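Q: Could you fold this chain for me?
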Amino acid sequence: AAAYAGALMTVASSSFFVAIGYAAFGNPYNLNHFVARSFYAVVTKFFNIHVEVEGEEYLEQKPAILMANHQSMLDIIICGRCVVPLLANIHAQLTWIRLMPKQAVIVSKDSLKYTPLGPFMMLSGSVFINRGNSAAAVKRLDEAGNLIKHNKVSTWIFPEGTRHLSPKSDMLPLKKGGFHLAIGAGIPIIPIVVENYYHIYHSGFFGEGTIKVKGKRPCNSWGRASLMNFSASSSSNPTVGLTRKDVGDLAVRVREQMVETLHKISSHAVNPESEKTPSVAVPAQKPAIVKSESGS
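A: Sure. Below is the predicted structure, expressed as structure tokens.
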């Protein structure tokens, strides 16, 4: 784990100088793509951890809010994953597909500005939110929404707000900031579900293996009536036609969808639903028949 953290900090520190170049040429939104790919190349070579993605075709839509579950510092690998080159035609042209697309920014808590990652994140156009001031946070999200929509960039968010990793495949309740952003700007939400990888990494253990990820289909044409009928088994997420009053319901339904997918792809983890003891109905007892001593 210490070696992994060291590799992460080395790549981030080196990227500060790359960030200056990107900013100088007016292209800061491609910086996260470059850094994520660089870090993924390092990790796969030296730590033998790989990422397998289903539904990557949904990730190219812009602008969009990319929402992923947050487990640990290994999530940086998820952002940077590039698949093995795919044959595009008979001439063997190569196409690279990535989870951190070009023209992408990250929404983060304000405190990260004051860490070693801060300078790099600021130069890459990251959106910082002060969670302690709701009014200021909503205003900042509105400003960010206009910027994201105007520049047609994707936005990566971990909506749980903090890391959550355990032997069970579950998620924390989702913070509402990303949903305010999506509804305010009319931007579609694309859920990205990362399997529970407790079997590969947890406190005191760092192993090897492949992490499965599933991208979900976006939708930005639903209205309030559709939200009320939103099913956890649906593959779409509504934003257009909704108002701030719908944020809470949307957050709950998106989480339900992500958790359902998380259970399906986390074959190594414990499904909390399977641990619930079903209630067993106790049959009503028939009243006892008391015979009289006379036998009548």
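A (continued): Residues 2-24 form the longest helix (23 residues).
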